[in-house]
Amino acid sequence: MSYNAAQLGSFRIPQIENEPMRSYAPGSAERKRLDDAIAKMKKDLPFDVPCVINGQEIRSNQCGKQPMPSSHANHLCTYHKADTNVVKGAIRDAVAAQAEWEAMPWNDRAAIFLKAADLISGKYREQILAATILGQGKNTWQAEIDAAAELCDFLRFGVKYVEELYAQQPPKNSAGTWNRVEYRPLEGFTLAISPFNFTAIGGNLAAAPALVGNVVIWKPSPAATYSNYLVHKVLLEAGLPPSVIQFVPGDPEVVVKEALDSRDFASLHFTGSTSVFRQLWKQIGDGVGEGRYRNYPRIVGETGGKNFHLVHKSADVTNAVQQSVRSGFEYQGQKCSALSRIYVSASVWPEFQEKFLKEVASIKVGPSEQWENFMGPVIGKPGFDKIVGYIEKAKQEGGEILCGGSADDSKGFFVQPTVILTKDPKSITMREEIFGPVVTVYVYQDEDLDKTLDLINSTTDYALTGAIFAQDRAALIKTSNALRNAAGNMYYNEKCTGAVVGQQPFGGSRGSGTNDKAGSISLFWRFVSARSIKEGFVGLDNFGYPSNLV
After folding, report:
1. CB 356 within 8 A of CB 173
2. pLDDT value, residue 4
3. How far apart are CA 40 and CA 462, in angstroms?
4. Can you give the pTM of this predicted structure?
5. Residue 421 to residues 82, 342, 391, 418: CA-CA distances in angstroms?
6. In whole angstroms, what is the distance from residue 43 CA to residue 38 CA?
């Protein structure tokens, strides 16, 4: 099928706004619909998730399971792992489909993703939320801001940004000429490797390159397989040609290896750990050195963070406390932007300590589908063991456990919200990413602000998010300037989590990634290769230059 469609108008996309978030108030119809969806999902599980290649379901002899972190004896789904032949076939057919996909008129391509957003916003909202709640351990609000609101925003604002990108054209034309630029997709396929912690990120890692005409091999996280599978189903229902995004769950030793070994590998779109990202970069670099690829692959990655709050002596302490509780312990600290280190001025520490510990102690922990629980389980056994291990290391280094410190994995992977007080600003829990509900506090003397700013800037390899709490504007300016490179997303008197598409482009540098800013137009530049076109309307009569005349 070819797209020889007439271009009979210059179309403008509908007005784009952020997806409204639902409150799920007690007794509301929306709460009942979600309760019903969760109950049905619990009744029907475990689900069978195939590889989806060219829109066809493919099942293999090797399977994996996605346990429910609140009740790990049960699993949400069994997924079929792609073998070498499946991956090679997915790559071959995706690449074969690219010419037709990029030739589809932009308005029709855009319509597919706008329709997908509307399907997620309405028809499939509760089902995708239920999969995120049960499979990834998010409470309702965290699932709502992720799998509903942010996913819709990524798709809709993505269309808006691509429209703006295509409109970037040369401002000048010499007499008798017309200059223009087309933004070609990359030659080959994009490998999208998505994480467990955001359903929306999975959708965006696959959809963003596809929006500008690329084809994608999507490898989901084993711990988010079912929600990601549902998102892929929605994209197909919205009209995405079946070979454009191939859904390929499986072991990285198979899926990633085959992708990076392919001459058609064109780009990596990644969210995950820093160590894995560095390994992938090295493998790609080796391939470039060997001349393996047709072009130099684009590498786009967002990884970890060791994110901070600085509480200045002029801070509104109550606000700093409430914002710190949310950013440190929402979704069990399993956001790459989550707060994990706090620097508090000594003069406000007594008030901050009293209020902070009182609020943390009030946090309810339990199964994520139960409405009263602010915190649910951590994602799995490896993460649970890592978090418990860091708490023990902190104790061994002399850290004082002010709150929490206990954990129980007998039924689900539950870790109590933990606050550690350290006298060593370079102790292990101030340096290394934990990815759990553990926050370490260092109290600095008011007169040592400059030294503390140096500590914040130099203690870790990461530079993702940070927040400054200060009512003194001069102090706010000073600290922000000193910490300019310590965070890609900086917040003033706001928590360091919760970037919104279209409002706060998200990403960090140093060990935190390539800072290509998801949720903005910047990301889309990474997945296109511009071609400049100059057309002459008046022919040349003589090859000589005026300066040649004598």
Report:
1. no
2. 64
3. 42
4. 0.96
5. 46, 10, 12, 10
6. 9
Nearest 5 degrees, angle CA 225-CA 229-CA 233?
Answer: 175
In DSSP notation, 317-358 reads HHHHHHHHHHHHHGGGG-STT-EEEEEEETTTHHHHHHHHHH
The rounded Cα 142 to chain-centroid distance in angstroms is 14
User: In sequence order, what are the residues at sequence separation of 6 or more whose Cβ sits closer than 8 angstroms to the Cβ of residue 166?
Assistant: 106, 183
- The residues annotated with a catalytic role in the active site are 302, 336
The model's pLDDT over 229-252, given as tens digits with 9 standing for 90+, comes to 999 999 999 999 999 999 999 999
* Phi-psi map region of 436: left, alpha, beta (phi>0 left; psi -120 to 50 alpha): beta
Q: Element (H or E) spanning 473, and its range?
A: helix 473-482
- 546 versus 90: the higher-pLDDT residue is 90
Is it the case that residue 1 has pLDDT exceeding 60?
A: no
What is the sign, positive or negative, of the torsion defined by CA atoms of 454, 455, 459, 464?
Answer: negative
* DSSP classification of residue 81: P
Residue recorded with tokens 């919760």? 498
- Give the CA radius of gyration of the chain: 25
In the numeric block, which tokens belong to residue 439?
């926050």
Residues 6+ away with beta carbon under 8 Å from 243: 53, 54, 55, 93, 94, 96, 97, 215
469 close to 315: Cβ distance less than 8 angstroms: yes
Match 């139960």 to its residue by tokens. 370
For residue 298, the cross-strand partners are: 267
Q: Average pLDDT in the 145-160 region?
A: 98
Which phi and psi angles does 538 have, rounded to 5°?
A: -120, 125
pLDDT tens per residue across span 432-442 = 999 999 999 99
Residue 10: the pLDDT is: 86
Q: Quote the tokens at residue 113.
A: 């993703």
Residue 532: strand, helix, or coil: strand
